[in-house]
Amino acid sequence: MSERDEQGPWVVVGLGNPGDRYAGNRHNVGAMVVAELADRRGEKLKAHKSRTSAATCRFALAPGQPPAAGVLAVPNEFMNLSGGPTKALVGWFGSGVDRLIVVHDELDIPFGQVRLKRGGGEGGHNGLRSITSSFGSKDYLRVRVGIGRPPGRMEAADFVLKDFSATERKELPFLVSDAADAVEALVRDGLEAAQQDFHSR
Q1: What is the pTM of this model?
Q2: Which CATH number goes with the domain that contains 7?
Q3: What are the CB-based long-range contacts (under 8 Å, 24+) for 187-196?
C-alpha cells in the first residue's frame, strides 16, 4: 500500500435527495456527478452500511505513480440529513475530513460553471450544513456546481427542487462531465492547480 493510501481513500460524496421524484432536480446535480464518476470506472453504487450507496474505485495520478484509492457515494437520506451517512462512510473507510470531497449544487455560481474550494460557509445549503455539523469542521473540499439563481421572485428552496429547464438539460451533460473532471483534478493535481484550471474557464 502506498503512503497516499495509508492516509485513507479519497471519499467523494455527491449530494441530492433519494428517490425517482428528485432524480432530475437541480439539487441533485452532485449525485449526478458521482454517477458519472462511477460510470467512467465501470462501477455500480451499492447499498452500504453507512446509509449511503457507494462503490470503491481508483483515481489515476501523474504518470509513473500508482493510482489512489477512492470511494464514490451518495447518501440515502434526505439532503438535510446528509452529514450522518457521510461521516459514517468516511469513518468506515478510515479516512478523515481532509480526504473528503463533497460535490453539490451552488446557487451563487452561474449555470454551467464549476468552482472548487476547501472550507468556508454553507451559503444556506442544508446538505453542507448537515455535513459541517456532523464532522464539527468545515475543512473539507467542495466541488461547487453552478445552477444559477432562481428567476423573478421564485424562492431558492423551490428552485432547487425543480428539474433543470429544457435549455439547461441540453448543456447538463457537459456540466456534469466538467464537475467529474474537477473531482479527478483535485485528487491528481491538488486544490491550487485544479482551481487555476477550472476557475479560468
Answers
A1: 0.94
A2: 3.40.50.1470
A3: 187/10, 187/59, 187/61, 187/68, 187/70, 187/101, 188/59, 188/60, 188/61, 188/62, 191/116, 191/117, 191/118, 191/141, 194/116, 195/115, 195/116, 195/117
